Amino acid sequence: MPTRPLPDNPSLEHLRNQARSLQRRAQAGEGEALAEFEEFDPRRDVSGGCSLSDAQFVVARSYGFPSWQRLRAHLDVVAEYSYWPRPVDADEADLPDGQDLAALADRFLDLACLNYTRDTPHRPARARDLLRAHPEVARFSLHTMAAAGDAAGLREALGRDRSQVDQGGGPYGWPPIMYLTYARLDVGSPVEAAEALLTAGADPNAGRLWQGMTSAFTALTGAFGGGEQGQPPHPQATALARLLLGAGADPNDNQALYNRQFTPANDHLDVLFEFGLGRDHDSPWRRRLSHTYPSTTAMVEEQLRWAADHGMTARVRLLLDHGVAPDGRGYHPNYRDLTALQLATLAGEREIARMLVDAGADRGRVDAVQEFVGACVAGDRAEVERLTAVNPALPARVREQFPDAGVLVARTGRVEAMRLLLEQGFDVNAGARGDVLGPPLRRTALHEAALAGNLPLARFLVEQGADPSLRDASFDATPLGWAEHSGEAETAAYLRGRS
Q1: In what helix (H) or strand (E) does residue 19 lie, and over which residues does it extend?
Q2: In Å, how far are 102, 146, 151, 153, 158 from 161, measured between CA atoms?
Q3: Are 417 and 377 in contact (CB under 8 A)?
Q4: b/e for 223-261, b at 16 or more Cβ within 10 A?
Q5: Which of 331, 318, 310, 127 minimizes the C-alpha distance to 215?
C-alpha cells in the first residue's frame, strides 16, 4: 500500500478522526484496517486490540512521516507560514478615510500586489491612483516602501534599524521583500530597493504557503509571475531573480516552475539553470516541508513531462540539454507514471517524441494504444489505418482505455483530427477523466473548443451530436459558460443559440 499525499491545508482534527476510525476498524478486525497496520507497522500485533497512539502512528506513516509527532510538527509549519488573501475587488466601494493611514497602506498593498486569489489587471492602476492621491502611504512602512520601489526610503529606514527587515506585515503578513517582488506597479526603483533589503539581511528565500499548499510562493516566485490566470511577471523580473539567486535563493523553486509552465517562454529557466536548477541546494523550504516538497530531480522531470504533453518543443530541448532524464517520472499524480515520451506520443507531438528517443527515452514503454491515440490527435489517417490493419481489435481497445480521447484531440483545435477520431467510434460527449489529459477538470471536447474560442471546431462537434447542455464536474458549467469565462464572444453567441 503506497503512502498517500497529505491534503493541502491539512486539519489536525481530521487526522485525529482518521486515527480514531482506524483504531475502531482494526479492533473490529476489518481487513483493510489490519492491512494498513501490516503495511506501516508490521511489528505490532493488533489482533488483541490497539491504542489510539498506535493508530496515529500508522496514519502518520501512511502519509510518509516517521511518527505522529513529526506529522504534528509539519502541521505547525503549515499553519505558521500559510496566508489566506481576501479576494479584493478593485471596483469595491470607497477607499478608507484619508486620515486612516494604516488602512490606506493595507489597501495600497492589496491592490499593488499579485495575491493569486483574484488578480484582475486593473488593480495595479488603482494602487497607483491611491499613491498619487495619498503619497504619504509610500513611506508608511518597510512593506509599502518595498512595494513602491522606494530604495532611498528603505536605505534610510534600514540604516536606523535593520531588525524589521524580515518582519511580516501588511494585509498578507508578508516580509517586505515579498511585497516588492509581487508588486506590479512599474514605479520607483525596485532592483535598488531589493538590493537595500538584501544588504540589510532580508531572507532571499522568504515565502509563504498559499492557503496551506505545501509549495511555497517565494519572493522568487513573485518576481517570475505566471500562473493559471496568466499573471504577469514583474517588470524587472530577470534582474530581481538574479539578485535573489545571487543572494542565496534556491533555484529549485517548485511554485515558480509551476506558475511559468503554462506559456512557452523559457527566460525563467535560462536564469534558474544558470544558478543551479536541478542540482541540490540547501533549501529552508525543503527542511521545513521535508518529503511533501518535491525533490529537485522530480521538479525538472515534471517540467519535461508537461512540456512534452503540451508541444513545447524548445522547452523540451532546453531541459534535455541540461541533463533532465528523458524517462523521469516527475511527481504530479495527474500524469501517473507516464513518461515524457508516452505523453508526447499521446499528444501527437512527433518531433518531441523523436527528440526524447534520441536522448535515450525507452521506446518500449509506448504501446499500440498510445500510438493510435497519438495518430488520431495528429490527424494521421494513414497511420491509423496501418495500426488498425496490424490489429483490427485496436480501436475497440483504445475506446475502452481512452474513451475521452476527444478532449486531447480538441486541444489541437483541428477539425480533421476530430473527424478522424469520431470515425473510429468515439463518443463525442465523453468527458476528460482529469489524469493524463491535463489539469483535473472533467470536461468534454466541446468545453475545450469553447474555452479556446474555436468556433469551427465547436460547430463541427455540435453537428456531430455534442450536447451543449452538459456540465463539467469542477465548475458545473456548460460549454457556453466556458466560452463566456474566457471572453470568446463569437463562440459564446453560437452556443447560446444552441442552448
Answers
A1: helix 12-27
A2: 20, 15, 15, 12, 5
A3: yes
A4: bbbbbeeebebbebbeebbbbbbebebbbbbbbbbbbbb
A5: 331
Tell me the pLDDT tens digit for each residue of 253-288.
999 999 999 999 999 999 999 999 999 988 999 999
Amino acid 228 reads: E
| Beta-bridge partner residues of 113 | 183
Cell numbers for 370, please give them: 498510445
CA 460, CA 410: separation in Å to the nearest integer? 11
Name 217's bridge partners. Answer: 208
Q: Which residue has the cell 489541437?
A: 412
SS3 of 40-78: HCCCCCCCCCCCHHHHHHHHHHHCCCCCHHHHHHHHHHH
Amino acid at site 258: Y
Task: DSSP letter for 174, please.
Answer: B
Question: Model confidence at 473, in pLDDT bands (50, 70, 90)?
Answer: confident
Strand (E) or helix (H) holding 218: strand 217-218
pLDDT digits (tens, 9 = 90+) for 286-327: 999 999 999 999 999 999 999 999 999 999 999 999 999 999
Residue 250 contacts residue 201 (beta carbons within 8 Å): no
How many Cα atoms are found within 13 Å in the side-chain-facing hemisphere of 119? 19
Phi, psi of 113 (to 5 degrees): -115, 145
Residue 267: CB atoms within 10 A of its CB come to: 13
What sign has the CA pseudo-torsion 128, 134, 135, 141? negative
Buried b / exposed e over 64-83, threshold 16 CB at 10 Å, is: bbeebeebeebbebbeebbb
Rounded to an integer, what distance in angstroms lies between the CA atom of residue 394 and that of residue 338? 20
**CA within 13 Å, CB half, 8:** 11
User: What is the rounded CA–CA span in Å between residue 164 and residue 178?
Assistant: 14
Q: At what angle do helices 12-27 and 68-81 cross, to 10 degrees?
A: 160
pLDDT of 10 over the 50 cut:
yes
Residues 6 or more apart whose CB falls under 8 angstroms from that of 54 comprise 23, 37, 41, 44, 46
Amino acid at 358: D
| 148-183 per-residue burial string, b: 16 or more CB within 10 A, e: under 16 | bbbbebbbebbeeeeebbbebbbbbbbbbbbbbbbb
